[in-house]
């Protein structure tokens, strides 16, 4: 149903990262919510990851997170020290972001879950949407892929993945704050953060809703060191499996992609990087600044092309 409130500038209709509501001609607020069960063993780290993930939607829209509410579900007999550590980990990341947690809500559940409802401040004239990519833009990914594959392997056996696990945790606990601050200084035409739908799902949404096509350079996609050696295509997270099933129906070229590569580009991410679309003349400078800011694997992974009439090939895979 069409939304008739003129102050709602972005809602769920475009599947964007956050809703945006206009307060004044220049000042808007962006609103989002996210929570999920633990994906690592350490409660403090889980709190950090969950908070970083929750705030990422605001950064993707071009905003700054300012206040948040805890959303939690814990078993009745859950140890209080574990709860405290989850909340402390989250607070550390919120403090780093400049976000104040001002309340929240908790219920009982057999499986623990934690996250945040976040409100961010954003300039109404500088909202970065997910459906405004332009032909000729280059596509930049700010973080490596593989968090879903790695956290799924942890459930089975983490003894042989220590180095890639550490890299994954460092990535998931890294805020997208610095990346967002960098791209505000450039004419970024579209942006999304890479989370549950994986790189390919979020890219498909961005490109199709922008009414464009794109080329995706498979060999340029950054992944965690050694990830390709430990991918188990028979042990993927449910979300990743669903991503593959959905995108196999939408993208004719995906069926020809190597199964390991397909698993990586469809891998459901937690606290992933930003995927942005920007004119070519700014791409190298953006990459340089991202690399210096700590996003060492930020890479150009493809380009946006004009939509071809009578052709349903939204994403062209290039090896």
Architecture (CATH level 2) name of the largest domain: Alpha-Beta Complex
Give the total of domains: 2
CATH class category name of the largest domain: Alpha Beta
Per CATH, the superfamily of the largest domain is: PurM-like C-terminal domain
Write down the secondary-structure element order. Answer: EEEHEHEEEHHHEHEHHHEHEE
Apparent shape: globular
- Computed over alpha carbons, the radius of gyration is 19 Å
Spatial gap, N to C terminus: 42 Å
Give a quick rundown of the structure.
The relative contact order is 0.17.
Question: How would you portray this structure in words?
Answer:
- It contains ten helices and twelve strands.
- The chain is α+β, with helices and mostly antiparallel strands and 319 residues long.
- The chain folds into two domains: 8-126, 60s Ribosomal Protein L30, Chain: A; 138-318, PurM-like C-terminal domain (Phosphoribosyl-aminoimidazole Synthetase, Chain A, domain 2, Alpha-Beta Complex), CATH 3.90.650.10.
- The strands form two sheets. Strands 1-2-3-6-4-5 form a six-stranded mixed beta sheet, covered by helices on one side.
- The model has no long low-confidence stretch (mean pLDDT 94).
Secondary structure elements and pairings:
Elements lengths: L7 E3 L8 E4 L4 E10 L6 H18 L3 E11 L5 H18 L2 E9 L4 E11 L14 E4 L5 H10 L5 H12 L3 H7 L6 E4 L4 H12 L2 E6 L9 H4 L7 H13 L8 H7 L8 E5 L1 H13 L6 E8 L8 E4 L1
Parallel strand pairs: 4-5, 9-12
Antiparallel strand pairs: 1-2, 2-3, 3-6, 4-6, 7-10, 7-11, 8-10, 9-11
């Amino acid at each position: 149903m069409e939304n008739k409130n003129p102050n709602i500038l972005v809602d769920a209709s475009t599947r964007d990262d956050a809703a945006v509501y206009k307060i004044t001609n220049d000042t808007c607020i962006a609103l989002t919510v996210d929570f999920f069960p633990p994906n690592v063993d350490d409660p403090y780290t889980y709190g950090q990851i969950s908070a970083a993930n929750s705030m990422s939607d605001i950064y993707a829209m071009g905003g700054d997170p300012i206040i948040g509410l805890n959303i939690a579900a814990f078993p009745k007999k859950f140890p209080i020290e574990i709860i405290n550590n989850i909340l402390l980990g989250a607070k550390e990341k919120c403090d780093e972001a400049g976000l104040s947690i001002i309340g929240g809500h908790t219920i009982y559940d057999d499986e623990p879950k934690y996250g945040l409802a976040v409100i961010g401040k954003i300039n109404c004239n500088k909202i970065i949407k997910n459906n405004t990519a332009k032909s000729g833009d280059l596509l930049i990914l700010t973080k490596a892929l593989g968090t879903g594959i790695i956290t799924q392997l942890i459930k089975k056996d983490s003894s042989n993945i220590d180095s890639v696990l550490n890299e994954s945790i460092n990535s998931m606990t890294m805020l997208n704050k610095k990346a967002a601050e960098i791209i505000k200084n450039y004419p970024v035409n579209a942006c999304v953060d890479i989370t549950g739908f994986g790189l390919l799902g979020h890219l498909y949404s961005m490109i199709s809703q922008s009414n464009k096509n794109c080329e995706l350079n498979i060999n340029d996609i950054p992944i965690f060191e050694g990830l390709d050696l430990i991918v188990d295509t028979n042990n993927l997270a449910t979300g990743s499996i669903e991503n593959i099933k959905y995108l196999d129906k939408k993208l004719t070229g995906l069926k020809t992609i190597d199964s390991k590569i397909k698993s990586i580009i469809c891998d459901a991410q937690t606290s992933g990087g930003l995927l942005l679309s920007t004119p070519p003349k700014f791409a190298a400078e953006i990459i340089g600044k991202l690399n210096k800011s700590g996003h060492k694997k930020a890479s150009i992974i493809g380009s946006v092309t004009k939509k071809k009439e009578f052709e349903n090939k939204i994403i062209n895979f290039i090896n």
